[in-house]
Design a protein that fits this description.
Chain A has 14 helices and twelve strands. Chain A is of the alpha/beta class and 345 residues long. Chains A and B meet through helix 4, helix 5, strand 2, helix 6 and helix 10 of A and helix 4, helix 5, strand 2, helix 6 and helix 10 of B. The structure holds a DNA duplex (16 and 16 nucleotides).
DNA sequence: TTGAAAGCGCTAACAC
DNA sequence: GTGTTAGCGCTTTCAA
């Protein structure tokens, strides 16, 4: 049997309230503090969080519902937020719903049963119905990476400026002289996919280019998807001279496809990739890329939910928008035609 | 305020005990069952798991402590085990200790405070001291992927037969006629590293080959590590004619290195890779590889801990050893010399 | 089959 | 600063 405060109380001769106060940061007379600390050591006492939760009506658990655990972007966000939450003595229960809305709803309800104090969700169900029960229960919800328009103002969120990210990448390619730019996107209709497409269109239209449907390929944010999409894109009769690939896994897959096809970067094709700087290391040493601040995303989520938990008015929801960074490598060159043109200049 | 059983009791006019029994699978008179079910719907009642835990002394939470969350092998194991555990109404708290023994110990203690019912651990600290407190508290521990010799017989475990896996791979290469085989390992002194090295040595020594230190490279189970290690290995004056790479990330990194160096597989070099069949998809279509049953590993862990929880004698620990599979692609050819030899045959 | 009542380990009034 | 006490929501004897 694990020791309880009652045991401490007996050993020290102090009342339960004093013991409790000691553990909750209250002021306790010096000699009693020592008394308690000795007893704690002697019994190897640790407070029972379950009992504490029952009393305080705070489980100190945050539920996290994500579409997929096998995704580097997601896991690095989770690591960062878990870190911060744990430092505040919050535990995190992660639930991978395999991008299945039914499972997502089950996960939310499961977590609600466990009396989680808050919910962080990278939503699969773009309608947001799975979150109704959480909102009805009055527990704070923070969306990550993807917004749900229908829930606007009713939940908080942490996202990156996807439109801007895409605009920046395309502008970089335009500046290098490219006029024919391919785009590799994730699943159609996903929030991030739409935003990144929008940014692409914005930048191109700003300079009067109407992209062809052929140059926009939807993959599924996997390595394999990126491989296929890039391969098909580059096999078309008039392939683009530059490429923007919009997530980490697809970037790896895409680079592999290019290597297999004997297309050199940047000599034959300029490429801007996505994410995960560290892992790239010396593998694609000179890849220019758009980098999402996963670490900050995770931390912002954690901070946001903690703030929400400490507020009287839990309806004061807010959306945090983080910026991406463009890190220049040497994978963007002027297109061949442009270089040829220069010779005649 | 969330509704409680007391509320149900009032609405239905039944006693608390009856309500409780209903929720715990006891027999309740038909008309009372209906009465309860109506009240449940009306109030949107869900049982409070925290209160239940306090009473039953079972939190229905399993703690999982892993070295790294950004690792595909680990996340797929976790997904599988979470799936199974959740179906049994167990929640999973995952704790990523960043391969830091200090953090690992903290994680274990944190989870103990939360009164987890059991612990699943892919250990970072090879001495196992971080688990002493869990064992002292009498909660079952299941190790995954890595054994801790010092804890032999005191904890359960699920591992793959790493020695055999490596033996199989090397035999495959030997059978193809290779006599000079390179090996890319993880961090030195890691359980899996040692086992995989052992298998390599076993197979080679069985045919009288003493491998050179030059042909055995230690990386750190990352893509970048694999890239570097393969590059260095292949740049040496007398590079091997075949290669066994012992994890997923390093296999990708290694393949990229080979492509960058212009070394063709299998024409110039035979390669056997590791893991993650699905993701490879058409990227390395013909790679022969050793495949760990991540899904089964996760499930076995879950089953094992559930079994342990239901046993009187929690000391009846056992180790489950799973086998790997060799799936043949076309990345293994006879070495060039051998082929040259054939011409003269 | 059902109900009354005790109590899991803790916190938070409240009185001292 | 400290002790007494009630009670969080549930399960589980025990008696009816």
């Amino acid at each position: 049997m694990a020791p309880t405060m009652k045991d401490l109380s007996q050993i020290t001769g102090l009342g339960l309230a004093t013991i409790s106060k000691y553990f909750n940061g209250g002021t306790v007379r010096e000699k009693n503090r020592i008394l308690i600390e000795n007893a704690v050591k002697q019994l190897h006492f640790v407070p029972n969080e379950v009992a504490r939760s029952l009393k305080t009506r705070r489980s100190h658990v945050i539920g996290v519902v994500i579409p997929e655990l096998s995704n580097a972007f997601i896991t690095s966000i989770i690591s960062a937020m878990e870190d911060l939450l744990r430092r505040r003595n919050y535990a995190v229960i992660v639930s991978d719903c395999r991008s299945d809305p039914k499972r997502e709803k089950e996960a939310v309800n499961f977590l609600l049963n466990r009396q989680v104090d808050g919910l962080i969700n990278m939503p699969t169900d773009a309608t947001g119905t799975h979150l109704k029960s959480a909102m009805a229960a009055g527990i704070p919800v923070v969306l990550v990476d993807r917004l749900i328009p229908a829930l606007d103002g009713q939940v908080s969120a942490v996202v990156i400026d996807n439109v801007r990210a895409s605009e920046k990448a395309i502008q970089e390619l335009l500046n290098a002289g490219h006029r024919h730019i391919g785009l590799i996107l994730g699943e159609p209709d996903l929030y991030t996919t739409n935003c990144r497409l929008q940014g692409y269109l914005n930048s191109l239209r700003a300079v009067g280019i109407t992209p062809s449907q052929e140059d926009i390929r939807y993959a599924n944010y996997t390595m394999n998807g990126g491989y296929q999409a890039v391969q098909q894109l580059m096999q078309q009769p008039d392939p683009p001279t530059a490429l923007f690939i919009t997530n980490f896994e697809m970037t790896i897959g895409g680079m592999l496809a290019l290597q297999n096809m004997g297309i050199r970067v940047p000599e034959d094709l300029s490429v801007i990739g996505f994410d995960k700087l560290e892992m790239f290391g010396n593998i694609f040493p000179h890849l220019t890329l758009i980098h999402q601040p996963q670490h900050s995303i995770g931390q912002e989520c954690a901070n946001l939910i903690l703030a929400l938990l400490n507020e009287e008015n839990r309806l004061s929801h807010r959306t945090v928008i983080l910026n991406t960074q463009l890190t220049r490598g040497t994978s963007v060159h002027p297109p061949k035609q442009a270089e040829a043109g220069k010779e005649f200049a």
